[in-house]
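Researcher: We're reviewing a set of sequences before deciding which ones to prioritize for further study. For each one, I'd like a predicted 3D structure that I can look through quickly. This is tRNA pseudouridine synthase Pus10. If possible, include the structure in token form so it fits the rest of the review sheet.
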Amino acid sequence: MSPVAEKDRAVAQLLLGAGTCPRCVLRFCSVGSQLLYRHPQQDLLKELQEFLRNSQEKEGTVCLEVADPPCKRLRLEHQEEGAAELNHNGATPQLPSAGNAGNTGNSALDSSAGRVCNVCLGILQELCEPDFVKKVCQKVNSADYQFTSFVFSVSLPPQLSVRERAAWLGLKQQMRNLGLPLAKDDIVQLKEAYKWIIHPQLAEELGVPADGKSLFEVSVVFAHPETDEECHFLATACPDCFKPAKNKQSVFTRMAVIKALERIKEEDFLKHFPCPPGSPKNLCDALEIQCNNGAVFVAGRYNKYSRNLPQTPWIIDGERKLESSVEELISEHLMAEFKADSFNFSSSGREDVDVRTLGTGRPFAMELVNPRRIHFSAQEMKRLQQAINDSSDKIQVRDLQLVTRSAIGRMKEGEEEKTKTYSALIWTDKAIQREDIAFLDDIKELRLEQKTPLRVLHRRPLAVRCRLIHSMSSEYIDQHHFRLHLRTQAGTYIKEFVHGDFGRTKPNIGSLLNRTADILELDVESVDVDWPPSLAD
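Model: Here's the predicted structure for tRNA pseudouridine synthase Pus10, in token form for your review sheet.
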């Protein structure tokens, strides 16, 4: 079977003669056979050369021949002295005659082994061969990740797009000069061809299949310092395409270069860049070989028994106010067991540092970023929960379980429509009797207007929020103290409902009782969110 179609014979000859590797020749000839790309590059070069010789013999006509690549030293000297004459503006180099056909094959093969492709800069040469694949897999295995499949991604230098355009324009002009047609078939994308070659090798070496939906990613970032400046002329021709962006070290991103190449006129490109491009001295470098596992999500409910423990680290102006937090007491164990890089903590609401959370606890979720370990049995999760509970008397965790990212949304769904129940110990300046507070038990669906409390105004926007007190029940203690049990709409500021916050919450317990009231203790007794699912003990 011929590696390329007969109609692409001249294209293959011209590309090989210009220093293009066999796999890039296949790409330019729109060859879609993945198996063909996986042939060893030297075997593929032999196949192409044999095809070209056979085609000539079959037709019995004089046609283009594959030029023998010169040795590296001569080639570099030749480029320095006369590259512009040979390459700029599509000038066609002198090609050998058919009479030299018998001497072409072996010498071309021998010298091509050390020649870096003028289009892919070696990506489809040594950088997809078994030795490089083993290097990637060694990096993966040393990182000690758990995974059952992988997705592979590759980042290519942006100048490859420039070189591909230059090769195409050079080919186009050479074919025109020779009076031959050039079909407008799509070029196989370099990334696609690279993955065709490397996927089966990685799968075999790692022992797991490649899967586009896998959460475990193996990525390789290639760079080619020798040709980094080849994109720079585009910034002059298309300045609007290259604008500084946050988190970008260079304006010459792949997308910016592609956008500029779509805009620049063909004649302007030919003026600034050799077509076809010359071969570089060096291969691309594998700048980074990285692994990343998709986030794992853990959910549960926590009880907080301390009145001196914030939910999250309490740091003001860079100074830590308290030594620990609910978040840290839980995350310490999860981070260690999952071997994650970092975490993100979220919960269904939050309590103040001096407020306890009792009952069945408050729902929480933790996203563990780039975990090395991802597989935990129900029994292992139970042991992890016990380890958290044994480590501190300030908190307890229940229903600890692995969940999906989408399931976490249920914790936040309709958050303000959910209800919460509280128990507040209240003090009054004037003496009270049982009958003075009994009427509170009869109040239902009391509508409040709460301006953003003064104590949180530094971190929340000023607004008036309408909230509901669904029901209350009072418990008389003595002449200046009583306990109030409340069932409220989520998001209600309970402390402000008691003392009024200088009139910013109306009505309030003080105004209802017609005396000054303040809150001494507050407990969250329940958060009525039916998530995560409760687990059997």
